[in-house]
Amino acid sequence: MGKTLIDVTERGDSDAVFDVIKYFLWNGNTEDLDQEFVYYAIAYYQKQAMAGNSDAMLELGTVYLEGRGVPVDRELARSWYQKAIDAGNIRAYRLLGHFYYYDRDKSGRPIRNENEKRLQMGAEVFLKGAELGEATSLYESGCMYMDGVVVEQDYDKAFECFSKGLDVVKENPKHPAKLFLNYKIGQCYHHGYGVEKDLDQAKKYLEVASREGERRTESGKIAEKERAEMAFAELLEVLAEKN
Fold first, then answer.
1. What is the pLDDT of residues 202-225, one digit of tens each?
2. Alpha-carbon distance 128 to 90, whole Å?
């Protein structure tokens, strides 16, 4: 596999190399990864990153954060995410924000960090990403305003963040934040958070969130499965109120 990557690279087909590496690096169990492949994959990412490819910086950060074929190195992961931000990659705000803002429980489920300093640092990254129009950062910022975490509770700002985030993901229907944003906007309309209560609008957004959740459940991500179930449960509440 390593030699195959080199051969493709020498032909100048860098996009193909990136796709091949991502597929084989992130599909299957970590223990099944071929170490020769990992060696060449890391070397390729590093070469691309040193040439200024910020997507390669993000991949390196996540490889070290998740320990995909390499020892987990959180500081190295953080460093690569920060370098991607410095290089102007807007997606890096989502990854660096999550790095600071969340920990994981034993099942791998993301849980809000209890370390106030890290929580504050994550919030600052998300708020900056929201200013730049990064969809997941807008979602996370909206949640902070809705729950009053780090920032003062403000339902108007929460609804504004969720709405702006949804406008962003409309340009990318497969964006992972689509489920979360539709759920939160539906929740806002259901309870009148930052917007006038409207059960018809709540039903519309919660139906989208439920369908999207059903579609994405196959990904196996616990957070997405839980949010899909929450959206469907809230949709049932809305339908009961309408009747």
1. 999 999 999 888 777 665 566 677
2. 10
